[in-house]
Amino acid sequence: MRAGHGLILLCVFTGWALDAKAASLHYLALGDSISKGAGTTHLCAPRTPVQMKQGAPDNPCSHGTSWADRFANTLAAHQDVVYQNVAESGYTTRNLIDKELPMIDGTPNLISVFIGTNDFKEMGTAYNDGYNRPDDFEHFHRQFRSIIETLQSRFPNAEILILNVPNTGILPYFSTHYHWSESVMSFERKMAQRGNLETIHPFAKKGQHRIGVVDLTCDPVHYQDKNLNDGLHPNDAGAEYIAEKVYRFYKTEEARRTEPSSFCPPYLDR
Question: Where are the domains of the chain?
């Protein structure tokens, strides 16, 4: 299992409110290992679209335990859903552009994107090796924006939901598995903060009715050991929590109008 997957989360849908009589939702999950389901007990993540009938007990992925599988199943409790998940372990924003976007099959009207953890992992790794490469952040910034803009261009009727990323410099994975020093972890915290504040959060402020940002960064639940498999990837409980949070955001008008917090020490404190 490769480390880190998911700064962001992005979802796209044709309408925010659920309607059992509406046309079938086509839900696409993009991202890294967190959206694929690493750390949970049963990965489904259909690489090609599968049909999930409303309320059917034996739908494809009915036993999937990633947050995206669970979200798809909740959607399918209310209406027919076409579900595709091309998220892959270890992927960065560049990998998503090069490898996941070409795999999109059909015309999704609900897209989730949770990406960026591996970008920040690479920045931290370089810093740990004695390199400080400012261009790495700029590459992430441009690539993330390109992902959103490409989705908007290809699927103009889709709604976009972005989930920001828990601060990777606070999650225990890198200090325990990579043995990074406090200096490197401090650098990692700063990069994750910049990624959320400078790259992800501005999409919630553009007034575009088809884009929303779900705030994972400032939620302490995402940093609790009981919800993590290895200090980074959600376990079954953590994935269920994310799925429920995304569904509430998708369904609740007030939640969609709430911008993510820009100050929540220690997760965001600059």
Answer: 9-256
Query: What confidence category does residue 246 fall into, taking pLDDT thresholds of 50, 70 and 90?
Result: very high
Q: Is the pLDDT of residue 207 over 60?
A: no
**Which residues touch 129 (CB under 8 Å, ≥6 apart)?**
none
Asked if 54 and 27 touch (Cβ cutoff 8 Å), the reply is no
CA atoms of 238 and 219, how far apart (whole Å): 12
> What distance in Å separates the CA atoms of residue 254 and residue 65, rounded to the nearest whole number?
28
Any idea which residue has 């949770």 for tokens?
Answer: 114
CATH class of residue range 9-256: alpha beta
Q: List, for residues 80-128, the tens digit of each pLDDT value.
A: 999 999 999 999 999 999 999 999 999 999 999 999 999 999 999 999 9
Instruction: Characterize 106-121 residue by residue with b for buried, 16 or more Cβ atoms within 10 angstroms of its Cβ, and e for exposed.
Output: eebbbbbbbbbbbbbb
Confidence of residue 258 (pLDDT cuts 50, 70, 90): confident
Q: Which two tokens stand for residue 151?
A: 């989705």
Residue where the block lists tokens 């552009």: 97
Q: What are phi and psi of 63, to 5 degrees?
A: -110, 10
Distance CA 216, CA 166 (A): 6
